[in-house]
User: Fold these one by one.
Assistant:
Number 1:
Amino acid sequence: MEKIKVNLKENSYDILIGNGLLENIENIIDNNSKRNFIITDKNVDALYGNYLGALKNYEKIIIEPGEQSKSMDVTADILKQMLVKGASRKSKIITFGGGVVGDLGGFCSAIYMRGIPFIQIPTTLLAQVDSSVGGKTGINLLHYKNSVGAFHQPTKVIIDTALSQTLPYRERLSGIGEIIKYGIIYDYKFFEYVVENIERIKKCDENIMPHVIKRCCEIKADIVSQDEKEGGLRKILNFGHTFGHALEGITDFSKYSHGEAVIIGMYCETIIAKKLGMIDEKYAEEILSFLSNLGMNLNISNYSIAELVDWMSKDKKNIGGKISFVLPTEKGTVKERLFEKSEILHLCSE
Ligand code: ADP
Ligand code: ZN
């Protein structure tokens, strides 16, 4: 088993990573206190629900899979069930599922009686490498993703790499988008490792996944512990996300998974860095050819650039009306640059 400590002073916690960890869940999670809850979705429950059966003091709340569950209605429903069943300030929540369950269940634990502890057991590759570190929880309101939420750190994260075997390829690809991002923004050696081992990563090979996931969590933990509330450094995690979020928005969050949109986003943003002369041509080619070989259609010429830029200008991370981009420069580093709308339009239409 691999273990990483996320250093956040009084909010510090451990991430445990291993193949088959859930088989011994009762040795990892304390099962003594009463009236605790597992929040999970129907698919995960059907596949793996019995893994948590040993936790007798945890009652299950099962939600519908999918982004539409990240709503005020579902939040209220979970909180009401907890109240009726007598959950106290000492109760705990386990979130057992992908990003949706983690964001929603984490949010419920952040606001129930002003905050109760929660343990995350992420079951998708994306959630394992991305949303389980950082303490962001939240739901969607109107069409605005994650527009209501709270920073609330889990007390423990348990990553069982065996669970990714049942993920469809597109779900794996979504995780791979975020995995390669860590190499580009922070660790060129890790980038090279991912490029070399991509076929095994696509298969979620149990012999290398604990290492891959560990390195991603270490990098994210390193960044987050230097900047818990997104004041500066944490922004580098947004490489690929300015374009990525715009693409998700323009396609109504239905065509691309998050990680797929980020893959296209990194592709477009690397081209922008290249046009601006911020990146060595050969290194840019390394990134671009890796992304092109993942088996995704990266062509987005059928979307209007003006509309994409409109989406970008709504982003929370923009400053003074300028659009924030995080662009690759030296190997293993990225830099934030701010652009006027017109500059981006110009760069993209060249
Ligand atoms: P993400 O983590 O990618 O944001 P979701 O929470 O929306 O995504 O999960 C994506 C889909 O995958 C959901 O339908 C969910 O029920 C399903 N799912 C989650 N974990 C697994 C797994 N280990 N194997 C198969 N399907 C899973
Ligand atoms: Zn992301």
Note: The CA atoms of residues 19 and 161 lie 5 Å apart.
Number 2:
Amino acid sequence: MHIAIINGPNLNMLGTREPEVYGHQTFEQYLAKLIEKFKSIEFHYFQSNIEGELIDELQKRATDCQGIILNAAAYTHTSVGLGDAVSSISTPVVEVHISNIYAREAYRHHSFLTGKCQGVISGLGLTSYELAVIYLLSMHE
Ligand code: DQA
């Protein structure tokens, strides 16, 4: 099974970015653990700070992955284009957030993605990604 993990803006700064909110691990450190834990899965990891590149990656991975885990970060709350991209593909997309967006500023409470995704996992730290993997795996059992 091929699963894409697509991370949006500023998530390349995990580990040093607001560690009280996002923790001390880099995504690369976490990804190494995911790869070790889910040996049957081939992960395709992509991060960009550029909205159009995230849309391009969603379209590309819709053709060669059976599931997509998307943390669009700040674009979650602003991007009609990313929402449209999720609507345009039939590959299941799980929206994830490291922090609990509903416990934060009001402008983070709205997502242009949630209504287009299979579901959303928010606030469980980096474990949010692992839970999304478990869900996508369960779709293929
Ligand atoms: C985030 C939450 C967003 O509101 C924020 O802009 C991010 C990260 C999260 O994973 O908690 O950059 O998506």
Note: The helical segments are 19-22, 27-37, 51-64, 80-88, 127-138.
